[in-house]
Amino acid sequence: MKNLIIVANWKANKTKDEAWDWFENFSKDSHDFSDKEIIICPPYTLLGKADYFISESNLKVKIGAQDVSAFEEGAYTGEISATQIKEFADFVIIGHSERREYLKEDEDIISKKVEMALKAGLTPIFCVSDGNSKIPKNVKIVAYEPVSAIGTGNSDTPQDAQSVARKIKSENIQVEKMLYGGSVTSQNVHEFVEMEDIDGVLVGGASLSPHEFLEIVKNA
Ligand code: PGA
Q1: 151 touches ligand 1 (CB under 6 Å)
Q2: What ligand 1 atom has the least distance to the C-alpha of 127?
Q3: pTM, to two decimals
Q4: Cα(66) to centroid of ligand 1, in Å?
Q5: Closest approach atom of ligand 1 to CA 183
Q6: In whole angstroms, what separates CA 160 from the centre of its chain?
Q7: If 0-12 CB within 10 Å is exposed, 13-18 middle and 19+ buried, where does residue 192 land?
């Protein structure tokens, strides 16, 4: 059986109180999800809150950041370094298409971010929007997220996602886990994870509700 990875990407959403409510509601359910790796990626401002809740309640989820600085540490106003993130998180999303588009992140910056993350002991969740993207070496988790599927309600087909996942794994031997992302819901999650080469999902909009996200975890 596959050990599925289910990632929640909250993007620029939630205040401290909203995050606390989310965790309270999510942890109320006694569902045993120890066979799945659940990674919650809140914005930087909520990493401390998430870390506190998880350690106090012994909740079996891990924390990821949504980005990391390409710089190490020092005089880089506004940046958050990989070492700083590592105090709260084990994972980091790198190369999301929203950052490539809105923040103009290019391959150089993205590969620098991967280097920083790995050096600090963070596991990158590397996002690509097609099967031809270059995957940096030492990246073990890749999320295939076609731009047309992100936040649109028009997910890719499981068959298409499977063939991209297969291609990426076969051309990049370092890649151990392929995730699919783009309009994943509790209704369609199973169709994706039952595909041979898909090892989990990256969930944006549908992860904002603790109830819907729990359904995704259960149905996966
Ligand atoms: P979505 O976003 O689930 O809202 O489509 C996925 C993502 O961008 O990671």
Answers
A1: yes
A2: 9
A3: 0.97
A4: 12
A5: 5
A6: 20
A7: buried
CA of 128 to the centre of ligand 1 (A): 13
In one-letter notation, the amino acid at residue 84 is Q
Distances 175 to 2, 124, 134, 171 between C-alpha atoms, Å:
15, 11, 12, 9
- Tell me the C-alpha distance between 98 and 103, whole Å: 8
Using DSSP, state whether 184 is helix, strand or coil.
coil
Are 166 and 151 a contacting pair, CB within 8 Å? no
Which mutation among 125, 184, 186, 215 tests ligand 1's pocket best, with the greatest number of atoms within 8 A of CB? Answer: 184
With tokens 């997910």, the residue in question is 155
Amino acid at 125: I
* Ligand 1 atom 1 nearest Cα: 204
The strand pairing partners of 62, in sequence order, are 39
Strand (E) or helix (H) holding 61 = none
Q: What string of pLDDT tens digits covers the 220 residues of the chain?
A: 789 999 999 999 999 999 999 999 999 986 778 889 999 999 999 999 999 999 999 999 999 999 999 999 999 999 999 999 999 999 999 999 999 999 999 999 999 999 999 999 999 999 999 999 999 999 999 999 999 999 999 999 999 999 999 999 999 999 999 999 999 999 999 999 999 999 999 999 999 999 999 999 999 9
